[in-house]
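In this supplementary section we document a worked example of the pipeline. Step one takes a protein sequence of length 50 as its only input; no multiple sequence alignment statistics are reported here. Step two produces a three-dimensional model, which step three serialises into structure tokens for compact storage. The input and output of this example are shown verbatim.
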Amino acid sequence: MAPIFILIRGNSGSGKTVLANYLQKQFGYQRCLLLHEMYCALIFYMLRKE
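The serialised model returned by step three reads:
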């Protein structure tokens, strides 16, 4: 299976986490990586410091 990038956006309470958890269950935990906004922000912050 080719890699797929799915970006989930929406307002607070719109169901982003519910959808992300559903997708992870459908694709399997070994093939689906969930990155939350705070985690991504931390990575970008650490990369800019270098």
